[in-house]
Fold each of these.
Amino acid sequence: MTGAVLVLNAGSSSLKVAVYGADGGKRRAAATVSGLGQGRPQVAVKGDCAPLPEPPRLPVTDLTVWLLELLSLRTGSIAAVGHRIVHGGRHFDTPVVLDDAAMAALEDLVPLAPLHEPHNLNGVIAAREIWPGAMQVGCFDTAFHRTQPELAQRFALPREMHDDGLVRYGFHGLSYQHIAEVLPDHLGAAAKGRVIVAHLGNGASMCAMRNRRSIATTMGMTALDGLMMGTRSGAIDPGLVLHLIEARGMSPAEAGDLLYHRSGLLGVSGISADLRVLEASADPAAEEAQALFALRAQQAIGGLAAVLGGLDALVFTGGIGQNSAAMRARICDGMNWIGIDLDQSLNRAGGPVLHRQTARVPILALPTDEESVIARATNALLAARTENAR
Ligand code: ADP
């Protein structure tokens, strides 16, 4: 097996690419183009990747091609490309080779994730054109949650709607998988216990794990459900959505824009979706936004702990979970009733261990690494194909 493995995460406002060695082990280089569709995009590179030129002003799809072509000149032979795909529906519960049949099945899922899935699939189309000989692999954010019991996946809607795919899929699965994989390094045998992982970034969700498998999660059919987020409302009275449309005359698109892009930390503070900006602000509305974010997180921990029948560990990850000592302290405040006992100075030091020595429930802050999960899965499929060809 020769050639590098490329990991591609083509999102709505950013494009992240990472290059891994042929063994899939070590990341050699990474590049991110952010701010797509918001004026001038910016490029950042990590590792031994030479600086990239200023990105041209192009539509997102063309920018994807621009970045991939540039990288193809630099990375030499590419054996496989692993793609992050937000929605795998009910059937994609493991990484798959993206052949024509898989792509057609994924096209059918676009209505379930209209803001993300088209960008992901465009990334696949662009990569196929640039590296026609490379294996294309899809890794799904929903797949980790396919282990949820049937009941946890059900909405209280008529049965035929459930059968028609209106179910709680859950997201951030690649992040949860990474945490599940490293958990024994930090917790030993307790990793198999009742663990809540809080992935708190611009998008935010929590996952209840038992035996390092998902048994419940806060996101539902879409990535709008559950916790309050950077610009998303999280769970909201469904009657309120009807009210917006029926009584306030909003179009479905306007209601969608409100709930996805103008709510959350941004909407409540009226200042920013970026927690760092709110933490630096003296405005009472910034304070209220942070307090509500924490309250919603506490409610979710209580709910997931009830599903788990208790709590053996709490793990924070994502940009906020890993970096914001202040938000972790807010969330843990008053949660002693469930065994959560944060050590304030360990918390300020950033972890990974955050709990008091005498605490019953370990609390950790861990970095997530969705790209390495995709690189390993892509390599495994590549190795299996090589083995089959023998
Ligand atoms: P995404 O979901 O887009 O991957 P991230 O996981 O990078 O987002 O999280 C972005 C969020 O993390 C932003 O709200 C940002 O303010 C917050 N964040 C990052 N670093 C810090 C920090 N040092 N302190 C507080 N918040 C932080």
Amino acid sequence: MMYPLIFATNNANKVREVQSMLDPSWKLITLKEAGIVADIPEPFDTLEENARAKAEFIYQSTKKNCFSEDTGLEVYALNNAPGVRSARFAGEQGNDAANIQKLLHLLDGNSKRNARFRTVISLLLDGDEYQFEGICTGTISLTPRGENGFGYDPVFIPDGSHQTFAEMDITSKNIFSHRKKAVAKLLHFLSTYHGQSKN
Ligand code: ITT
């Protein structure tokens, strides 16, 4: 990897996962390492707009190449909710247990439990924006299972597995993961990027 890149996120789990996907030549800089303490706003109704807003917010203060990602869990029986509101589904921002409880309650008695995770990465490189999407389809389990991961991992079973994401270690989650697919597209783009990086 040729460019140092700031990962514009306050979510330590995302940083840990993305770091596990990169080879050591990559220079990923976290907000913490960049000395940035900021509540990054996510005001929009789509993952694409929020991802862009997060990257732009960090670019404004650093003027450095950076990327962000926005992820949502889309449950078909719930008209793709919680979607862009995944982090604050049950009200309070980032309360994983309450979010899972609300989701299971809404699906109570419903046998149609198909869902997907969707990640959108926004990369700001030399002043231009590029987006990369990663999707993982699966189903919502009847009860939470497993201790690993974060967010909705205890109730999400990716297609092709019988385990929830929270029952997998990080390497196994990466075989299926939405985030891994989006990051793979980002890495492929960067490896073929011929622009002159000025930042
Ligand atoms: P940043 O905006 O700072 O990046 P965030 O936690 O607010 O961090 P999102 O806006 O993308 O991130 O919120 C997505 C929510 O969806 C997150 O809080 C989790 O509850 C859930 N989520 C995201 N990725 C997930 C994954 O891989 N497995 C399970 N749940 C996930």
